[in-house]
Amino acid sequence: MSFNRVVCFVRSHEFARGLVEVQEEVKEEGVGHVAMRNLFSLETSSMETITVEKKSRKRHIRESADRLELSKKVEERAEFRKKQNSDNLTHPPEFIVRPRGQTVWEGKTVKLHCTVSGWPKPRIAWYKNNVVIDEKAHPDKYTAESNYNMHSLEIKSCDFLDTAQYRVSALNIKGESSSVATVVIKNGFCSEHGVTFETAIIDSFEVAFGREGETLSLGCTVIVYPTVKRYQPDVLWYRNGKALAESKWVHTHWSGEKATLTLIHLNKEDEGLYTLRVNTKSGFQSYSAYVFVRDEEVELEGVPVAPLDVRCHDANKDYVVVTWKQPAVEGSSSILGYFIDRCEVGHHHWAQCNDTPVKYARFPVTGLIEGRSYTFRVRAINRAGVSRPSRASDPVTAIDPHDRARHRDLTLDWRCLIWVWKEMGVVPGEPTDLVVTEATKNYVVLAWSPPAQRGHEGVVYLVEKPEMWQKVAKFKGAKYFRKALYTVDIYSNSAGMSELSSATGDITVGDMLDLPAAPGPAVATRNTDTSVVVSWGASKDVKHLVGYYINYTVAGSDVWTPANNKPVKGTRFVCHGLNTGDSCVFRVKAVNAAGYSHSSLESEAVVVKAAIPGVPSGVHLMEAARDYMVLAWREPAVTGGADIRGYFVDYRTVKGGVEGQWHELNPKAVTCTSYKAENLKENLFYQFQVRAINMAGVSEASLPSAALECKEWTIAKPGAPHDLHVLEVRDSSLVLLWEPPTFDGRTPVNGFYVDIKEAVAGEDWKGVHEKATKLKYMKVNGLIAGRSYVFRVRAQNLAGVGKTSAVLGPVLALTMPGTHEIILDVDDDGVISMIFECSEMAEGSEFIWSKNYKTLTDTSRLTIVTEGGKSRAIFNAPSLEDLGIFSCEVTNTVGVSASYTLTEAGESLSHFATQMAMELLEKGRVRFWTQVEKFTTGCHVDYVFNDAIVENGEKYQMNFDKNSGIIEMFMDSLAVTDEGTFTFNLVDGKAKGSTSLVLIGEGPHFVDYLGFQVTPECNVLLKATVRFYNSKLSKKDAGVYEVKLKDARGKDKSMFNLTEAGTATPLLCSRTTYVIVKSTEHGIVLYSLITYHMEDLQVGWLHKEAKIAHSDRVQCGVTGEQLWLKVNEPTEKDKGKYTINICDGKDGVKRFCDLSGQDRARVVGGLPDVVTIQEGKSLNLTGNVWGDPAPEVTWMKNDRELVSDERYALKFEHGKFASITIAAVTTTDSGKYALLVKNKYGTEAGEFTVSVYIPEEEKKKE
After folding, report:
1. Where is the signal peptide (predicted)?
2. Cys-Cys crosslink for 434: which of 448, 639, 957, 1033, Cβ 3.0 to 4.6 Å?
3. 3-class DSSP state of 1038
4. What is the C-alpha separation between 127 and 131, in angstroms, rounded?
């Protein structure tokens, strides 16, 4: 081997010395650059001139020494290169030492090392997540070094965003090689911009379902606190753990608060687990949910659906290997094979690549034109027809891999010496390790190792097949060959041809890749109301597994539906989108390139219903002392289809904002929604979280509570009630229950207040009742069907009203379909019972009976019998002790409950079809009657008048028809002495009931009974006076009234026409009073009284001649004979003239009221919210009031009016200042005080609390 050296000729010896110094920085260059250097050398040589110069001896010796030194360096350089390339051949890059992955703490420095061999010397490039690292652009972050084939990359001051895959690539003219190392930066998050960021992802997307061809958007609201101007977090989207980049199929958007991912024209390739990750220097938050893509409807029934995930591999200058994944649905028959289509980039014509369908999901497409780019798609075929085509693959260019490596961008320095060598011809050695890696019915895939001796020039592989060793292919520089042939190998270059490689041996045409074995049996377990978890055993001895498909069917049906349309690799999958209550069966099949396996054994049928309970919420503090805290929380909204068996509480300490590790507080689950955490340290901050447990397992932990300080409470007011929940939710009512606070304050709790508001923005809290209730439950009426409400409860003691409970809700006021009420039943033996039915019984559901909303434990009063979905509570011995509210709740259901109230006077233990009524018969005879629905033959009735039992006789005649159930009592006439209460008391075995009618002269009756009178003409006049009184005359009373009189000699009648045509009555609307103004605690009421109110009476209110619109603040209506207008919280705008228009259809009347220049009474200031004062001191408070006219002032304590005496000095001066003075206060003066001001336009109260303490007791507590 000989070398030619080409150098640039110069006249200056100093310049030559400079070239020798530069020689140490020389980098080897490609052949193309050598040609350019030769051209440059020829151009400069034509300009050379010879100069004769006389040199001194000293200078000659110095130049000789420099030449010797230069020759020595050249020899050393040649020796070094000889050691680097001992066989004088070119070699592709090869990693001797690969970089190793590292895990370090944030803020540390990471250094990756590797050693690479190869000739010419490879060029090194570093990549982060496939993006090249430019260390010159970021010198403060990266430093790359290369010395003697040893290369390194230093990453300084690592942070979380440096967590990535780092790849080092080595490239020379022989090829390219790379190696990957993973760097993980562990949490040691530091503050950024001087603050610590907190990130929360809300309004997150749920499991989504789309169909091929549709567009799907996923979005979350991201809150980063605190807000820093021009700061933007790093928002990333992932699919199955791989970062998504912008493309024509994927669009991402970040608006500053909303992160959105849009998937254009969905395909099955888009199915998977999508994750949103928000990174800041203070940490990260992520959220994940699965996206399912269903197949587009097939055009022809029975054909398979489209294949998916078409990819291109091993692209060469005239062929490429195309792979794909089989679809989940084969159609009405098995898939017979696949057709592969290709399309040249820039064109729209698709050409079919194979005439015969291929069953193997891998196919080499030949006949490509070098340098052109192609996309590919695949179609499946069965007996019913051909499927739609798959999504097209990414473009791939047909190019020789040798040229592909040579076309990489290389940056070389032209300011260096170029060494060019010429190599004598070297005959290559024979290829080795020839093996068949794939052998299908359509093609064979070969692989071999190149020879050790091959020279520098390009090489050509010649492929022959066994039939007389006929040459079938010729191609360059590939290490692996894939072609539809049966082959052996030879190797050649310009110096000659190598020896033949060893033959492959006989190859049997067929699929060397076997079908996968059937997976293990499928096991299905309940998960949520719409999902089931399916697990199975992995297929054994399977090669090149693509994944698994899961199918399901509803028990009793033979239609199987795919649960996933993209194969999954694991052996566990959550099948979403199922119907609640369905009984489903699952099976699994594996798939590889050869095809589908047999289906696994089917799972047992499982009912789709939630299993594990939901997450508890609202963890808050109920009471605190020096060494313990009492916590409470809300039960999960979803119980998982089984009763909550208990809760586990965890805690951790918080010191200086640093959170410790979680520790378990209670090894044994607590059954209530509160817990006393003991053995805590005083003045230390703690956080708590709660997990629920049922028979299926333990839920996720709740959100941690706020940091709570373990410090004894000294406040006088009570703590917050807890454990709020609702029962008996109906369209217009519900029952709210709660537990009293664990901390009573300084005095015991003596009542509760319930607040309500609609669950919409802008609504204010309203009290359900005015006076405190001592009960722990309340029925809330007046709800509007279809609206949602939230509730809270407050407790009070003598010191005042305490903290509000956690808000419950929203609760939808709606009677669920199939809701049943408790009914009272009396059987033939007179046994009384209450019956409640439930049509939504679940596994493990039970009926729980309560009295006054306390679970019944005394079985001596009631016997409970339950059969299927019906429960009966039987009274053992009914008595007054059984009066109360009986309720029944069904566990493991969505709030199925009802109640029945037994009272002494109201509700009864027997059912009356109608209440007692009275009829006026001929000759003044009166009939009292009612009807009973259900009774026994032993039933009897007591007839009572004014608490005295009356007997059948001359005045009263009774009858009880047991065939029809009608009870009657007759009287010949009514007298003034008959005014009172008539009652029928029914006794039927153990059942009792009553119905009453009060008669106080308002019914039709005889004022003068029938009698006779002899007139002066000697005629006999029979006469009687009848009175008919109707206090509320309406349209229903219109008609013709008549009185008939008859005897044996004849009859007569008198008529009265009470209709608009028959009677000229005065206008009803004219019988109204003037508008009256009344003040209330909420505002003012304007009203007018009308003598008669008719249904069709039209009433309208005007303010300043404009019609008043109804709102929450301004309301109008009719109550009895009162036409009213309410104005809550009046303002200046409410002043002016008010008019009421009343019209009865014929004429109308107007009434006016002027409220101009007048103000309602108000407390405008001067009073504090809380006054804490030492015992024995004097208390003096003054409140500023306002109103026109001047208001009346009243002082209240604990809702009782105070009067001025020796203890309380009450004053009201100048109509503006109201004061109260208490000399030498005592602890009895503690309580809730109010300054109540009132005038004709309104009332207002200024409230404050007075707390008196004793210094000695405070010191003892400290």
Report:
1. none
2. 448
3. coil
4. 5
3-state secondary structure of 287: strand
In which band, very low, low, confident or very high, does the pLDDT at 478 lie, cut at 50, 70 and 90?
very low
Residue 813: is it exposed, middle or buried by C-beta count within 10 angstroms (0-12/13-18/19+)? Answer: buried
DSSP 85-138: TTTS--EEEEEEE----EEEETT--EEEEEEEEEESPPEEEEEETTEE--TTT-
User: What DSSP character marks residue 21?
Assistant: H
Q: Identify which of 496, 589, 583 has the alpha carbon closest to the alpha carbon of residue 542.
A: 589
**Residues above pLDDT 90, as percent of the chain:** 15
CA distance 369 to 817: 69
The residue count of the chain comes to 1262
Segment 384-388 shows an average pLDDT of 91
Provide the token pair at 1227.
């602890």
Tokens matching residue 169: 């690539």
- E-assigned strands of 440-582? 444-449, 460-465, 470-476, 480-483, 488-493, 496-497, 523-528, 531-535, 545-554, 561-562, 572-575
Q: What is the pLDDT of residue 506?
A: 64
1034-1049 confidence digits (pLDDT tens): 555 667 777 776 766 6
Residue appearing with tokens 């009865």:
1144
The per-residue pLDDT for range 400-435, each reduced to its tens digit, is 766 665 554 443 333 333 333 444 456 677 777 777
Q: Of 617, 632, 616, whose CA–CA distance to 676 is shortest?
A: 632
**Burial zone of 619 (CB within 10 Å; 0-12 exposed, 13-18 middle, 19+ buried):** buried
Max Cα separation, the chain?
190
The whole-angstrom separation of Cα 691 and Cα 613 is 9
The structure tokens listed for 1220 are 């109260």
| pTM exceeding 0.90 | no
Q: How far, CA to CA in Å, does 1208 sit from each of 800, 1171, 1212, 1225, 1227?
A: 20, 17, 13, 10, 15
**Close Cβ partners of 1047 (under 8 Å, ≥ 6 residues apart):** 1022
Q: Which two tokens stand for residue 684?
A: 């230390």
List for the chain the helix, strand, coil content (%; round to 5): 10, 45, 45
Residue corresponding to tokens 């008539």: 982
Q: pLDDT tier at 1026 (50, 70, 90 boundaries)? A: low
Burial class of residue 1015, CB neighbours in 10 A (0-12, 13-18, 19+): exposed
What is the SS3 assignment for 295-318?
Answer: CCCCCCCCCCCCCEEEEEECCCCC
User: Could you tell me which residues come within 8 angstroms of residue 398 by beta carbon, excluding any fewer than 6 positions away?
Assistant: 315, 316, 317, 318, 319, 320, 368, 369, 370, 371, 372, 373, 374
Amino acid at position 370, single letter: E
What six digits make up the tokens of 469? 């060793």
Question: Burial code of 356-389, b = ≥16 C-beta within 10 A, e = fewer?
Answer: ebbbbbbbbbeebeeeeebbbbbbbbbebbebbb
Closest CA to 544 of 470, 598, 483, 597: 597
CB atoms within 10 A of CB 211: 13
pLDDT, tens digit, for every residue of 231-281? 788 899 999 888 888 888 899 998 888 999 999 988 888 999 999 999 887
Classify residue 797 by burial, with Cβ atoms within 10 Å: 0-12, 13-18, 19+: buried
* Phi, psi values for residue 62, rounded to 5°: -65, -40
d(CA 944, CA 950): 6
Position 443: which residue type? Y
Q: How far apart are CA 904 and CA 324, in angstroms?
A: 80
Q: Measure the CA–CA gap between 549 and 612, rounded to whole angstroms.
A: 26
Calculate mean pLDDT across residues 716-728: 83
Distance CA 103, CA 526 (A): 38
- Read off the tokens for 1187: 């109103």
The pLDDT tens digits of the residues spanning 599-655 come to 999 998 888 887 778 888 888 888 888 888 888 888 887 776 667 888 999 999 888
